[in-house]
Amino acid sequence: MTIGILGGGIAGLSLAYFLKHKSIILEREAHLGGLGRSFSLNGIDYDIGPHIIFSKNKEILDLHTSLLETNKIRRSNKILHKGKLIKYPFENDLASLDKEERDYCLHGFLNNPYDGYEPSTMLQFFLKTFGEGITKLYLEPYNEKIWKFDPSFLDTQMVERIPKPPKEDVIKSAQGIPTEGYTHQLYFHYPREGGFQALVNAYAKAIEGKSEIINPVAINKIIRKGKQWLVKTDKGDQLFDKLVNCMPLHELFRYLEAPDDVRQTLDRLKFNSIYTVVVQCAKDGMGDNFTFTIADKDVIFHRLSKLNFLGDRYCLKDGGSTLLIEITFRPDSQLAIMPEEDLKAQVVRDLEKLSLVSGKDILAVEARRFKYAYVIYDLHHKQNSAKVLGYLEGIGISCCGRFAEFKYMNSDHVAESAQRLAGRLNGGLEDST
Ligand SMILES: Cc1cc2nc3c(=O)[nH]c(=O)nc-3n(C[C@H](O)[C@H](O)[C@H](O)COP(=O)(O)OP(=O)(O)OC[C@H]3O[C@@H](n4cnc5c(N)ncnc54)[C@H](O)[C@@H]3O)c2cc1C
């Protein structure tokens, strides 16, 4: 039995790792890793937005930290709000706001008129869980900025597992007594060298001999042949007993026959793209912090990260800093057609406006764009994705991965899903022997 795996990102590679069967991975790019890839500028490796290794799933976390050497790092993330640095998460550091805003947040949390309602949108969830002040000052503008979508048109899938902060913690936070939120992300791991790509490479090494990788390859057509799948490519035809899609759904359907209603539903599945801009400076304006998130609409990026924080291998030899900046955009928006030079110039202007860099200290600026970055949980996402995935399941194609399952999944969730799917496929193998 040979399993065909379409896409050589973390999903495809981890699936091959967990499978007992022989598998063949077909990857379009010359490099493996998809969103988990890293690039290099003046010897500093950087990811598509820093990709930290963390997980609530101990087995997956242990696997990822055993596959390669990592640095274990304590989080130091801040929110840059009207010139002030607020510790992440926002609700845990209300004392750093000015008095009027602090009182607005505390009062809105303690006297919350939205308390008794069942939220059906992200915005309603925020208002109910955090109150008006925290929502209006930070959560609503930040989410609107990253999703490029009004949170009143997003459903609650992204946020429903966020616990309501205990009343005592929010009171302490307003009084300036330190507390920590989201403690499962307090410490994280990062590859000692090579960026997140090191995890991709470690998976690729671990499956050597067991799985074949064909890349770069152009798939031309995917056709059902009796009980098997024929995948026609520019490197010849491949016949598989089982086919698993690990690439974005929108890519898969370019090669498949499908009914019109399924295609129309696919077209309604929304996603965001992302620009990453790397700025290397002779000086450091971020201090001992890893990331700043910024909800302010007048700043083009929603997050910037200082890569020096990740370890010695991510520091420029002559000092200074490497900043990684993230800007999401809808594929059909004005931002999508912004010329690269204008984008870079805007990023530098905004960094200067925030007093984080001075133009004369800039050593290098590099921009890259990536089509599939974030799944958008609009109000129809659940039913639309269920229809498309149900169709694929019906014709015998399994899906595994962030844009293959069309879910907000980090690499640990992707590996977890691959492990589950491999368990089912391995079970099938045992049944048939
Ligand atoms: C900005 C950002 C920050 C993130 N931060 C983190 C983080 O800190 N920690 C974390 O764990 N996760 C993070 N993630 C999520 C993580 O990147 C994904 O969960 C993971 O990389 C998804 O892997 P995948 O294999 O499902 O998909 P992808 O990485 O998208 O892989 C799909 C693969 O399919 C290939 N492909 C596409 N089209 C074709 C085709 N036509 N033919 C053949 N192959 C094709 C692609 O080239 C790619 O290799 C982040 C994501 C983003 C966007």
Q: What is the topology, as strand order, of the major beta sheet? A: 7-6-15-16-17-14-18
The level 1 CATH classification of the domain at 2-34 and 197-264 and 379-432 is: Alpha Beta
Number of contiguous helices: 11
Derived from helix and strand composition plus strand pairing, the structural class reads: alpha/beta
Oligomer: single chain
CATH homologous superfamily assignment of the domain at 2-34 and 197-264 and 379-432: FAD/NAD(P)-binding domain
Shape: globular
- SSE ordering: EHEEEHEEEHHHEHEEEEEHHEEEEHEHEH
Taking the alpha carbons of the first and last residues, their distance comes to: 11 Å
Helix content: 25-40%
Q: What are the distinct ligands in this entry?
A: flavin-adenine dinucleotide
User: What is the tally of beta strands?
Assistant: 19
Radius of gyration: 23 Å
Mean pLDDT: 96
Please indicate the percent range of residues in DSSP E strands (runs of 2 or more): 15-25%
**The CATH topology of the domain at 2-34 and 197-264 and 379-432:** FAD/NAD(P)-binding domain
Biggest sheet descriptor: 7 strands, mixed
CATH architecture of the domain at 2-34 and 197-264 and 379-432: 3-Layer(bba) Sandwich
Q: Which stretches are poorly predicted, pLDDT < 50 over at least 5 residues? A: none
Structural features, described:
By secondary structure, the protein is an alpha/beta fold. Among the domains are: about 1-35 and about 195-265 and about 380-430, FAD/NAD(P)-binding domain (3-Layer(bba) Sandwich); about 90-180, no CATH class. Helix content is about 30%, strand content about 25%. The protein has helices spanning about 10-20, 60-65, 100-110, 120-145, 165-175, 195-205, 250, 260-265, 340-355, 380-395, 410-430, and strands at about 1-5, 20-25, 40, 45, 70-75, 75-80, 85, 185-190, 210-215, 220-225, 230-235, 235-240, 240-245, 270-280, 290-295, 305, 320-330, 360-375, 395-400. A hairpin with a 2-residue loop joins strand 3 and strand 4 (about 45). Helix 8 (about 260-265) packs across helix 10 (about 380-395). The longest helix has 26 residues, at about 120-145. The model has no long low-confidence stretch (mean pLDDT about 95). Flavin-adenine dinucleotide binds near residues 11 and 246.
